Amino acid sequence: MKKVVISILILLPFVLIVVISIAGRIFGDYDYIEVVGVSFLDESGDVVENDYCLNVNLGEPVVLKYQVYPSNASNQRVTFAVTDTSICSVSVNGVLTGSSVGRTRVRVTTYNAHSSEIEVNVVDKNVSGVAIVPESITGYVGGNAQLNAIVEPSTAENKAVVWDVRNSQICVVDENGVVTFLRAGSTVITVTTVDGGFSDECEVTVLGGGAVFNTTRVTTDTPTVDLSEYIEGDMTNAHLTIMSGDCSLSGTVLTFNNTGVAQVKLYIGDDSTANYTTLMIIYSV
To answer: Would you give per-residue pLDDT tens digits along the chain (285 residues)?
Structure first.
């Protein structure tokens, strides 16, 4: 036993010398690589431009992309800071979460104070409601009206809607919100969002009287056309407006300056968008 202990004690200095020699070689060959910069990257992994803005959906976490330079720097630790923390927050791992709609800036900083910034725009892509404009319409048999569906918020990603009418014998509505009045009476038009199923209603009243075009298309070989020939009903609250074409209008008489196509709308009532019919006139010789 004593011989073993003595042998170990004799060999120990040599072992220490070898260990120290190897350690010296390892640490002597190690070069510390300093960080010289950092940049945010876009969704494609490219360095962001000055006008770059990261759009983030409310409540959906996004991992921020960045690059420390050089890529083999010894210490790649970074920290994140947000200018307005009420709009978004960033975790220590670079996960950004939007908490309210708005814009702010986010900065990434290396351990030795190199930094980069981007603008962040937090939006709400989820539909929260819809409204029909106008809320009610009154028209005459044979006429049309335009309804618009205002989907909220304005940043909603899917603004698709579906139109429906309670009594299709009174009026019909197409996929663009154009209403056609069929017969006197009252009904309700409903619009429903595809995303979320939010809906709104519009009261519709259809009157039996009023002026309308009795056709939608006319071809003429003379430059002057009396449109009264194509109008049915009472013109008391009606007026004509040229929508397109190289022509002029005096009362119900349309005069072409050159051959071509003109489009005229016959409006009823004070609100020119509420009730109308359209006539296309083609002048050729």
So the answer is: 555 555 555 655 555 555 555 554 554 445 899 999 999 999 889 999 888 999 999 989 999 999 999 999 999 999 999 999 999 999 999 999 999 999 999 999 999 999 999 999 999 989 999 999 999 998 888 889 999 999 999 889 899 999 999 999 999 999 999 999 998 899 999 999 999 999 999 999 998 777 888 899 999 999 999 999 999 887 877 889 999 999 999 999 999 999 999 999 988 766 555 678 899 999 998
What values do phi and psi take at 261, rounded to 5? -125, 135
Q: What is the pTM of this model?
A: 0.58
C-alpha pair distances (Å), 54 with each of 82, 96, 285: 13, 11, 58
Residue by residue, DSSP assigns 93-131 as T-EEEE-SSEEEEEEEEETTS-EEEEEEEEE--S--EEE
With a CB cutoff of 8 Å and minimum separation 6, the contacts of 271 are: none
Q: Which candidate, 215, 204, 149, 148, places its Cα nearest to that of 180?
A: 204
